[in-house]
Design goal:
Elements: H1 14-33, E1 37-38, E2 44-46, H2 47-50, E3 71-73, H3 78-86, E4 95-104, E5 116-125, H4 129-146, E6 151-157, H5 158-168, H6 172-183, H7 185-188, H8 190-201, H9 203-213, H10 219-230, H11 232-246, E7 253-256, E8 270-276, E9 284-290, E10 305-311, H12 312-318, E11 332-336, H13 342-354, E12 359-361, H14 368-377, E13 382-386, H15 388-393, E14 395-400, E15 406-410, H16 411-419
Parallel strand pairs: 1-4, 6-7, 11-12, 11-13
Antiparallel strand pairs: 2-3, 4-5, 5-10, 6-8, 8-9, 9-10, 13-14, 14-15
Length: 420
């Protein structure tokens, strides 16, 4: 019997699972700071919802279908949000929502890529385009800052590529394939992407597009190129977005990158990705964009929509969470010299817990040396030791497991020490 989890899935050790909670909590706190509310949607959706008018494009082949052919595991939480909103049209606008949880993708596992993924999503439905895009990008960036990460935001507008393909004469039926090829640029390199695009559109039609993908320079220079040579209106709007983002005081770099298109077909204009500013990390840790037509696919009118998802699994791997020394939230373990001291130890533990100190109580028949070794193995800071003497006097012996110092204290003084 193979006791390992399925391919692309993983078990988490206590220190890893604890860090998942802490990272998720920090991200959620930033999202709340920006005024996002939360909803909860099922992990299962009807396949007709997941595949509505091929909303997610070629990624649809990666959906986990449930036996019977009617349901599937959600691929991401954006489609679920669109279905939810289409079913609840009375929600006040703009609707700002965050959601942190798991999705499932039937793709080939590799470094920083799993089949069961955990994401932190934020979306704004019904906001003004430039304002909402800037707010989403800023909130996600501030969440990364709260985790102590150095990051880069790569940002683009799909309409720039659409306009370039229009001018170059690339047929509409081929443009989706061209965008998917461009999306692979960071994985396979410019030469291979160029060959793919030339194979799709022909060398002459691909030439202008490929020269734009190779364009270097500052954001201002790239904006100038778009305004002068591609689409003046899109260039002006994109410049407004960059100006707005600069007012949020983000610590990360914001780079205009024509190759940032995102692989999912429901994106309509703005597209962006978050990268760790480290040479050894070659994958994004989040991304998103504008998807103004998605909600209309589920009935009713189209509505402005923008959002992003941070990949918590990837962030945790970047933070090397498996090396985390913190295995428990407990700050103290109450140890007993012998079983006759357990009732008093329970009273001590209750007092600590009532005071808000996360406390573990020894529930084994181990000797005191083994109990202290246990506290050390979990990196618990304090051990509160009770024996006959402490029980008789209503005291507790508190050992600092870091310094090794010990003090015999009353319950209230022990609480003050551990809260210090």
């Amino acid at each position: 019997m193979d006791l390992n989890p399925p391919k692309g899935f993983r078990d988490l050790m206590p220190n890893e699972a604890l860090m998942v909670e802490e990272v998720s909590g920090k991200i959620a706190e930033v999202f709340r700071l920006f005024g996002f509310c939360t909803i909860d949607t099922p992990m299962l959706e009807r396949l007709e919802i997941l595949r509505a008018k091929d909303a997610i494009g070629e990624e649809g082949k990666l959906i986990y279908e449930i036996d019977g052919g009617e349901l599937g595991l959600r691929y991401d939480k954006t489609v679920s949000l669109a279905r939810f909103f289409a079913n609840n049209r009375n929600l006040p606008l703009p609707f700002k929502r965050y959601s942190i949880g798991k999705s499932w993708r039937r793709e080939e596992p590799q470094k920083l890529r799993y089949r069961e993924i955990m994401q932190a999503d934020i979306d704004i439905l019904g906001g003004e385009n430039v304002y909402a895009d800037a707010e989403v990008i800023a909130a996600a960036s501030k969440a990364l800052e709260a985790l102590g990460l150095k990051y880069i935001v790569k940002i683009n507008d799909r309409r720039i590529l659409d306009a370039s393909m229009e001018k170059s004469g690339v047929p509409k039926e081929n443009r989706g394939a061209v965008l998917h090829a461009i999306d692979k640029l960071d994985k396979i390199g410019l030469d291979e992407v160029s060959n793919t695009i030339i194979g799709i559109a022909g060398r002459e039609k691909a030439e202008t597009l490929l020269s734009m993908l190779s364009l270097g320079g500052s954001n201002e220079e790239k904006l100038g190129y778009v305004t002068d040579s591609v689409d003046k209106g899109v260039g002006k709007e994109f410049g407004e977005l960059l100006d707005l983002i600069s007012n949020y005081g983000l610590k990360g770099k914001v780079i205009m990158d024509f190759s940032t298109v995102r692989g999912i077909d429901y994106y309509t204009s703005t597209a962006f990705e978050f990268w760790v500013e480290r040479e050894d990390i070659k994958s994004t840790i989040g991304g998103g964009g504008r998807y103004d037509r998605l909600i209309g696919m589920y009935g009713g009118r189209e509505i402005n929509a923008t959002g992003t998802a941070l990949g918590i699994d990837r962030i945790l791997d970047v933070l090397e969470f498996s090396k985390s020394a913190k295995h428990t939230y407990a700050r103290c373990v109450v140890c007993t010299i012998k079983p006759a001291n357990f009732a008093y130890a329970l009273k001590v533990a209750k007092s600590f817990r009532d005071a808000g100190i996360k406390t573990e109580l020894n529930v084994s028949n181990r000797n005191i040396a083994n109990q202290l070794d246990y506290a050390n193995s979990l990196n618990i800071r304090f051990a509160a030791i009770v024996g006959d003497a402490e029980q008789k006097e209503g005291m507790v012996k508190v050992r600092d497991m870091v310094s090794g110092s010990e003090s015999v204290l009353g319950i209230e003084d022990a609480i003050a020490l551990m809260n210090g």
